[in-house]
Amino acid sequence: QVQLVESGGDLVQPGGSLRLSCTTSGIIFSLNEMGWHRQAPGKQRELVATITTNGRINYADSVKGRFIISRDNAKATVYLQMNSLKPEDTAVYYCNAVRYSISTNYWGQGTQVTVSS
Predict the structure, then answer these.
(1) How far apart are CA 101 and CA 28, in angstroms?
(2) How many C-beta neighbours within 10 Å does residue 66 have?
(3) Banded pLDDT at 115 (limits 50, 70, 90)
């Protein structure tokens, strides 16, 4: 059974930091491209950051220079370090695992991040 479990979401003040984690099981983690996405109320889900199997990274323009994605293959976990948070970063954050060779794409249940004073 495949599971992706996000954690680390919280209420934080503007300018603060959070670190999200997504721990996986049931997949060969090292063979999956991992991603973080977010969905704010009333908006479509959007890409935040991705990291490929060989460590190539892509960020949405809105988070460049503030967020850092990383992966630990030994722990089958992907992280999202979020710094200089803004109210517009408020959303439910989801991780996903994509393995293009076998056309699988699994999602977690999401974790709420709220940036507010």
Answers:
(1) 12
(2) 15
(3) very high
